[in-house]
Amino acid sequence: MKNQFLLIILFCASFVSLAQNSTEVVVPPFKDTYCELVKQLESGETDINYQDFRYQFIESKQFVIASNKTEESDSLKKAMYACMDNSDTLGVIRITKQMLSIDYTDMMAHKILRQTYKMIGDTANARKYKTIQFGLLNSIVKNGNGQSCETAWPVIQVSEEYFILQMIDAELQEQSIERKGGLCDRMDVKIDGKKKTYYFETTKVFEGYKKLGL
């Protein structure tokens, strides 16, 4: 049992080292549905159920690993923006793929990656990552209208909420939890100076917290 535990640690350590030095997305080394779907998406087979894919991320061991890499993910994001400011397209590609090696449901990473591939004329990869980005996005915003807790957009991570608000140019004014009609985050925002409210269904977020022991 002890030897098996040591082998798992070494296996994960080698995966982390590979992810840090690779210019490609490294598929996590777990034989679960999430990892198999990451492998499928990276191969260009993008016709999947994206909501199920996001839910499978919570069930995967990779979810726990990603949750323990918050500081690394934040550092990668800062490095990504620095590369963008310096027009370092190869650096952007390398860093966003490191981000996706941690969490392949990261819509921001997919967005920046597809924009960068478009910039350098790689239309095939630009098309692939655009399909994945909007597959993930639509699996949220096409499941409800976000106008009430009963019709809230279903998210698995709070970061998805902020990405969507950024996509619609919404300036967050106040965030609160609402339980009338479900378990939701209520986001009071301003768009073009006008007040609006959006609701995000957070049952899966709290399932994730429970898995992490929070």
Automatic annotation (TrEMBL):
Pfam families linked: DUF4919
Keyword field contains Signal: yes
Domain of life: Bacteria
Listed InterPro entries: DUF4919 (IPR032578)
Signal sequence interval, chain numbering: 1-19
Keyword Signal set for record: yes
Name of this chain's protein: DUF4919 domain-containing protein
Organism: Fluviicola chungangensis
Lineage: Bacteria, Pseudomonadati, Bacteroidota, Flavobacteriia, Flavobacteriales
